[in-house]
Amino acid sequence: MRRGRAFYRDVVTLALPIVAQNLITTSLGLVDTFMVGALGEAPLAAVTLANIPVFVIQLVIFGLQSGSSVLISQYWGKGDTDSINRVLGVGCYVAGAISVLFALAMSGFPTQLMGLLTNDPALAELAASYARIVGPSYILNSITGVYVGAHRSMEHPRLGLAIFSVSMCTNTFLNWVLIFGNLGAPQLGVTGAATATLLSRVVEFLVMAVYALTNRRFRLRLGLALRPGTELLWRFLRYSGPVVVNETLWGLGTSLYKVVMGHMEGSTEILAARALAGNIEDICTVVIFAISGTTAIIVGREIGAGRGKESVYQVGAVMDTLALAAGGIIGLLLAAAAWWVLPWAVYPRFLLSDTASQTATMMLTFTGVFLALRAFNSNNTVGVLRGGGDVRAAMRIDTLPLWCVALPLTVLFGLVLKWGIFWVYVGITMEQVTKFGAGVRRFRSRVWINDITRA
């Protein structure tokens, strides 16, 4: 841990804007939850259901950001901005293609898609009205996300903070207008929330486009971005492709937890509780994910700059330790708040029933108790291993515990044995327990330290 003040100053300088950006993004989700929650448990559960495919596409975008970061952070350490432009171009092509497919599915077959996620027809129809509108917004959001992620990898995380601040303010204002019918607008309820999201994504994309065409810190060279070349394409597929697959598989697997909940007895109350608990959980993990993002940047930069393996290993060890400590502190505070603060200060504002409130407390208690473990796993996989170019091992460690351990246990406890939501969460937490041992072994091996920019 004795790295000197300059190192920790660098960590804080990179992490704070990422914390702020993540906080803005998650606060936006909480505002949406609060406003839709004012309409009742059924609309809140419907939006939670409709956001399952949205969550998957967001993770795909995150995978593209992380995958691009594997290359961009090392190219940035070398000062090779031409290659960064090419990586950015490939990322935008892939993001655009994937998000278009999602948008077509959500807009063209929303009722059928939502019907796969719950056995409640009324809930599926309400969710479909939201999904039909919000789907196309992620075409724009995916391009913005890849561009912002590139700047984050180039040690400029403030751009994302600025762009998503504009997006959050726009979305919040339009939610207030369209959900409740203020300023003479029609009261649209759930569809109003979807329309607000779509319009805010349009504004977000326009702000990004203006910045991309005018900034001088990193000049966007459209010729390189539009024609990245086969060599860079194959390098992207080799090192970024596994990250995209990783995040897609992880997103699909995590989304299946909600599908299990949507087919359990009392699914409306469970999904409403999950909507609120999930947003609170997201706010509590902004620091953890900021540390992971910062770790990937620093590890990649150190390798690209030609630092020795032992130096890079020590940097990874410090960042894993910081993540573990941050997760432990935040987790204890969250568990305490779940019992002694949230039940009287937050739950009543969302019109949750007693059963839904008790379920939310149970969910947040599990999250708090295991947050230190989750923080270490996230930083070690997303920050250290990916930053070092060890993307295939990171993919195995991140996905196999989910698909081979946690999901089978969740389905067994929730749908086969019907033991209830408590045991479903027992199954969910087994993902972190299994992942921890594999992650520690891989980190100590040092084989994750690779310069992937060499020809």
> What is the helix tally?
19
Mean pLDDT: 89
Q: What is the share of helical residues?
A: over 70%
Q: Give the end-to-end Cα distance, rounded to a whole number of Å.
A: 34 Å
What would you call the shape? globular
Instruction: Specify the oligomeric state.
Output: single chain
What is the C-alpha radius of gyration, as a whole number of Å?
21 Å
Report the order of strands and helices. Answer: HHHHHHHHHHHHHHHHHHH
Residue fraction in strands: under 5%
Uncertain runs: none
Q: Major sheet, described briefly?
A: none
How are the elements arranged and paired?
Blueprint: H1 5-37, H2 41-78, H3 81-108, H4 110-115, H5 121-134, H6 137-153, H7 158-180, H8 190-214, H9 222-226, H10 230-239, H11 241-262, H12 267-284, H13 286-304, H14 309-340, H15 342-345, H16 354-369, H17 371-387, H18 391-416, H19 421-445
Structure overview:
Helices cover 83% and strands 0% of the residues. It has 455 residues and is mainly α. The longest helix is centred in the first third of the chain and has 38 residues, at 41-78. The chain is globular, with a radius of gyration of 21 Å.
